[in-house]
Amino acid sequence: MFDTTKKIGILGGGQLGKMLCLAAAPWDFKMCVLDASPDFPAGPFSAEFTSGNFNNYEDVLAFGQDKDVLTIEIEHVNTAALHKLEQDGKIIHPAPAALDIIKDKGLQKEFYQKHAIPTPEFHLFKDEHALLEAIEKNTLHLPIVQKTRTAGYDGRGVAVLRTDADLKTKLLKGPCLAEALAPIQTELAVIAARNASDEVRVFPAVEMDVHPEANLVEFLLCPARIKPLVAAQAEALAERYPGVRHMWFAGC
After folding, report:
1. Overall number of domains in the chain
2. What are the tens digits of pLDDT across the range 173-222?
3. Is residue 167 part of a domain?
4. Which of 75, 133, 141, 219 has its C-alpha lying 20 to 30 A from 66's C-alpha?
5. Long-range contacts for 213-220 (Cβ within 8 Å, ≥24 apart)?
6. What is the pTM for the complete model shown?
Protein backbone atom coordinates (compact mmCIF):
# COMPACT_ATOMS: atom_id res chain seq x y z
CA MET A 1 0.00 0.00 0.00
CA PHE A 2 1.14 3.56 -0.71
CA ASP A 3 1.66 5.69 2.37
CA THR A 4 0.43 9.13 1.34
CA THR A 5 1.59 10.66 4.63
CA LYS A 6 5.16 10.47 3.39
CA LYS A 7 6.76 13.70 2.19
CA ILE A 8 8.41 13.51 -1.23
CA GLY A 9 11.02 16.16 -1.97
CA ILE A 10 11.90 17.27 -5.51
CA LEU A 11 15.10 19.18 -6.25
CA GLY A 12 13.96 21.48 -9.04
CA GLY A 13 10.73 23.32 -9.71
CA GLY A 14 10.64 23.59 -13.48
CA GLN A 15 8.33 21.96 -16.00
CA LEU A 16 9.42 18.43 -15.09
CA GLY A 17 8.83 19.15 -11.41
CA LYS A 18 5.37 20.40 -12.32
CA MET A 19 4.59 17.24 -14.27
CA LEU A 20 5.80 15.10 -11.39
CA CYS A 21 3.51 16.96 -8.97
CA LEU A 22 0.59 16.54 -11.34
CA ALA A 23 1.28 12.81 -11.78
CA ALA A 24 1.37 12.33 -7.99
CA ALA A 25 -1.82 14.29 -7.35
CA PRO A 26 -4.29 11.40 -7.94
CA TRP A 27 -2.64 9.50 -5.07
CA ASP A 28 -2.60 12.55 -2.76
CA PHE A 29 1.14 12.39 -2.22
CA LYS A 30 2.62 15.42 -0.46
CA MET A 31 5.04 16.82 -3.03
CA CYS A 32 7.61 19.31 -1.75
CA VAL A 33 9.79 21.35 -4.08
CA LEU A 34 13.12 23.17 -3.70
CA ASP A 35 13.99 25.89 -6.20
CA ALA A 36 14.70 29.59 -6.47
CA SER A 37 11.13 30.91 -6.64
CA PRO A 38 7.57 29.65 -6.01
CA ASP A 39 6.67 31.38 -9.27
CA PHE A 40 8.43 28.56 -11.11
CA PRO A 41 6.14 26.04 -12.91
CA ALA A 42 5.99 23.49 -10.06
CA GLY A 43 5.24 26.10 -7.40
CA PRO A 44 1.42 26.23 -7.67
CA PHE A 45 1.19 22.43 -7.84
CA SER A 46 3.37 21.56 -4.85
CA ALA A 47 2.08 21.00 -1.32
CA GLU A 48 5.12 22.76 0.05
CA PHE A 49 7.64 25.03 -1.70
CA THR A 50 11.06 25.93 -0.30
CA SER A 51 12.98 28.81 -1.86
CA GLY A 52 16.63 27.87 -2.22
CA ASN A 53 19.41 26.67 -4.49
CA PHE A 54 19.56 22.96 -5.30
CA ASN A 55 23.28 23.40 -6.08
CA ASN A 56 23.97 24.66 -2.55
CA TYR A 57 25.07 22.06 0.02
CA GLU A 58 23.36 23.68 3.01
CA ASP A 59 20.10 24.34 1.13
CA VAL A 60 19.82 20.73 -0.07
CA LEU A 61 20.79 19.33 3.34
CA ALA A 62 18.22 21.45 5.16
CA PHE A 63 15.51 20.68 2.59
CA GLY A 64 16.02 16.95 2.93
CA GLN A 65 15.88 16.76 6.72
CA ASP A 66 12.13 16.16 7.03
CA LYS A 67 11.57 14.38 3.70
CA ASP A 68 10.93 10.64 3.49
CA VAL A 69 11.97 10.35 -0.16
CA LEU A 70 14.04 12.69 -2.33
CA THR A 71 14.28 12.86 -6.10
CA ILE A 72 15.36 15.32 -8.80
CA GLU A 73 14.02 16.98 -11.90
CA ILE A 74 17.51 17.84 -13.19
CA GLU A 75 20.81 16.09 -12.51
CA HIS A 76 22.85 19.23 -11.83
CA VAL A 77 22.27 19.25 -8.06
CA ASN A 78 24.54 19.14 -5.02
CA THR A 79 25.24 15.42 -4.70
CA ALA A 80 27.55 15.87 -1.70
CA ALA A 81 24.51 16.87 0.36
CA LEU A 82 22.55 13.92 -1.04
CA HIS A 83 25.32 11.52 -0.03
CA LYS A 84 25.09 12.91 3.52
CA LEU A 85 21.31 12.54 3.56
CA GLU A 86 21.61 8.98 2.27
CA GLN A 87 24.06 8.21 5.10
CA ASP A 88 21.46 9.59 7.49
CA GLY A 89 18.93 7.08 6.20
CA LYS A 90 17.02 9.09 3.61
CA ILE A 91 15.69 7.31 0.52
CA ILE A 92 16.97 9.00 -2.63
CA HIS A 93 16.13 8.16 -6.24
CA PRO A 94 18.29 8.08 -8.31
CA ALA A 95 20.97 7.15 -5.76
CA PRO A 96 23.64 9.83 -5.21
CA ALA A 97 26.32 7.48 -6.57
CA ALA A 98 24.34 7.18 -9.82
CA LEU A 99 23.81 10.94 -9.94
CA ASP A 100 27.59 11.46 -9.72
CA ILE A 101 27.81 9.57 -13.01
CA ILE A 102 24.74 11.15 -14.58
CA LYS A 103 25.93 14.73 -14.05
CA ASP A 104 29.40 14.15 -15.55
CA LYS A 105 29.50 13.15 -19.22
CA GLY A 106 33.09 11.95 -18.82
CA LEU A 107 32.08 9.50 -16.10
CA GLN A 108 29.09 8.50 -18.23
CA LYS A 109 31.38 7.59 -21.11
CA GLU A 110 33.70 5.60 -18.85
CA PHE A 111 30.66 3.78 -17.45
CA TYR A 112 29.49 2.89 -20.96
CA GLN A 113 32.98 1.68 -21.85
CA LYS A 114 33.30 -0.42 -18.69
CA HIS A 115 29.94 -2.11 -19.20
CA ALA A 116 30.23 -2.59 -22.99
CA ILE A 117 27.40 -0.18 -23.77
CA PRO A 118 27.80 1.02 -27.38
CA THR A 119 29.19 4.56 -27.61
CA PRO A 120 31.34 6.48 -30.12
CA GLU A 121 35.09 6.60 -29.55
CA PHE A 122 35.91 9.39 -27.11
CA HIS A 123 38.75 11.26 -25.42
CA LEU A 124 38.67 13.25 -22.17
CA PHE A 125 40.39 16.64 -21.84
CA LYS A 126 41.06 18.87 -18.83
CA ASP A 127 40.01 21.92 -20.87
CA GLU A 128 39.59 23.30 -24.39
CA HIS A 129 43.31 24.10 -24.65
CA ALA A 130 44.21 20.44 -24.21
CA LEU A 131 41.68 19.54 -26.89
CA LEU A 132 43.20 22.05 -29.32
CA GLU A 133 46.67 20.72 -28.56
CA ALA A 134 45.53 17.20 -29.45
CA ILE A 135 44.19 18.48 -32.80
CA GLU A 136 47.43 20.36 -33.49
CA LYS A 137 49.45 17.20 -32.78
CA ASN A 138 47.15 15.14 -35.05
CA THR A 139 46.15 12.80 -32.25
CA LEU A 140 42.56 14.03 -32.64
CA HIS A 141 40.95 14.68 -36.00
CA LEU A 142 37.93 16.71 -37.13
CA PRO A 143 35.00 16.35 -37.35
CA ILE A 144 34.24 15.76 -33.67
CA VAL A 145 31.51 16.47 -31.15
CA GLN A 146 32.77 18.38 -28.11
CA LYS A 147 30.75 18.13 -24.88
CA THR A 148 31.35 19.85 -21.58
CA ARG A 149 31.62 17.30 -18.80
CA THR A 150 29.09 19.06 -16.57
CA ALA A 151 26.19 21.54 -16.70
CA GLY A 152 25.06 20.61 -20.20
CA TYR A 153 21.38 20.21 -21.08
CA ASP A 154 18.80 21.33 -23.66
CA GLY A 155 21.41 21.96 -26.32
CA ARG A 156 23.89 23.60 -23.96
CA GLY A 157 27.34 22.14 -23.59
CA VAL A 158 27.46 20.52 -27.04
CA ALA A 159 29.39 21.75 -30.07
CA VAL A 160 29.79 20.00 -33.43
CA LEU A 161 33.26 20.93 -34.69
CA ARG A 162 33.78 20.22 -38.38
CA THR A 163 36.32 22.82 -39.53
CA ASP A 164 39.18 24.99 -38.26
CA ALA A 165 36.75 27.92 -38.34
CA ASP A 166 34.49 26.07 -35.90
CA LEU A 167 37.41 25.83 -33.47
CA LYS A 168 37.49 29.63 -33.35
CA THR A 169 33.75 30.23 -32.98
CA LYS A 170 32.15 27.15 -31.37
CA LEU A 171 34.79 25.74 -29.02
CA LEU A 172 33.46 25.25 -25.48
CA LYS A 173 35.51 26.14 -22.39
CA GLY A 174 36.41 23.94 -19.45
CA PRO A 175 36.70 20.18 -18.81
CA CYS A 176 35.27 18.35 -21.79
CA LEU A 177 35.24 15.28 -23.96
CA ALA A 178 35.51 14.85 -27.69
CA GLU A 179 33.81 11.99 -29.48
CA ALA A 180 33.63 10.82 -33.04
CA LEU A 181 30.83 12.31 -35.10
CA ALA A 182 28.43 9.38 -35.42
CA PRO A 183 26.31 8.90 -38.56
CA ILE A 184 22.94 9.06 -36.80
CA GLN A 185 19.91 8.06 -38.80
CA THR A 186 17.36 8.14 -35.97
CA GLU A 187 17.83 9.21 -32.36
CA LEU A 188 15.84 7.25 -29.77
CA ALA A 189 15.26 7.53 -26.04
CA VAL A 190 14.24 4.69 -23.75
CA ILE A 191 13.40 4.94 -20.06
CA ALA A 192 13.64 1.96 -17.72
CA ALA A 193 12.48 1.95 -14.10
CA ARG A 194 13.40 -0.44 -11.29
CA ASN A 195 11.62 -0.74 -7.95
CA ALA A 196 12.95 -1.80 -4.55
CA SER A 197 12.19 -5.44 -5.39
CA ASP A 198 14.41 -5.22 -8.50
CA GLU A 199 11.41 -5.50 -10.82
CA VAL A 200 12.10 -3.66 -14.06
CA ARG A 201 9.68 -2.01 -16.46
CA VAL A 202 10.71 -0.45 -19.74
CA PHE A 203 8.80 2.31 -21.52
CA PRO A 204 8.53 2.09 -25.32
CA ALA A 205 11.20 3.85 -27.34
CA VAL A 206 10.41 7.38 -28.47
CA GLU A 207 11.91 9.14 -31.47
CA MET A 208 13.53 12.56 -31.23
CA ASP A 209 13.74 15.10 -34.01
CA VAL A 210 16.77 17.24 -33.13
CA HIS A 211 17.51 20.72 -34.53
CA PRO A 212 20.81 20.33 -36.44
CA GLU A 213 22.34 23.60 -35.19
CA ALA A 214 20.84 24.09 -31.72
CA ASN A 215 21.27 20.39 -30.76
CA LEU A 216 17.85 20.71 -29.18
CA VAL A 217 14.89 18.33 -29.48
CA GLU A 218 12.12 20.02 -31.50
CA PHE A 219 9.68 17.14 -31.82
CA LEU A 220 9.15 13.94 -29.84
CA LEU A 221 7.39 11.09 -31.64
CA CYS A 222 5.75 8.22 -29.79
CA PRO A 223 5.71 5.50 -30.84
CA ALA A 224 9.02 5.77 -32.66
CA ARG A 225 8.95 5.05 -36.38
CA ILE A 226 11.25 2.04 -36.17
CA LYS A 227 11.16 -1.68 -36.85
CA PRO A 228 10.12 -3.97 -33.98
CA LEU A 229 13.60 -5.53 -33.85
CA VAL A 230 15.26 -2.13 -33.41
CA ALA A 231 12.78 -1.22 -30.68
CA ALA A 232 13.49 -4.50 -28.89
CA GLN A 233 17.26 -3.91 -29.09
CA ALA A 234 16.94 -0.38 -27.69
CA GLU A 235 14.67 -1.49 -24.86
CA ALA A 236 16.94 -4.42 -23.97
CA LEU A 237 19.92 -2.07 -23.76
CA ALA A 238 18.08 0.29 -21.42
CA GLU A 239 16.89 -2.63 -19.26
CA ARG A 240 20.46 -3.72 -18.53
CA TYR A 241 21.14 -0.74 -16.25
CA PRO A 242 17.83 0.79 -15.06
CA GLY A 243 18.19 3.39 -12.33
CA VAL A 244 21.55 4.63 -13.59
CA ARG A 245 19.99 6.88 -16.21
CA HIS A 246 17.73 6.72 -19.21
CA MET A 247 19.87 5.25 -21.97
CA TRP A 248 20.23 6.91 -25.34
CA PHE A 249 20.32 4.41 -28.17
CA ALA A 250 21.33 6.46 -31.19
CA GLY A 251 22.30 5.74 -34.73
CA CYS A 252 19.65 3.11 -35.43
Report:
1. 3
2. 999 999 999 888 899 999 888 887 888 899 999 999 988 777 788 899 99
3. yes
4. 75
5. 214/155, 215/155, 215/158, 215/160, 216/154, 216/155
6. 0.85
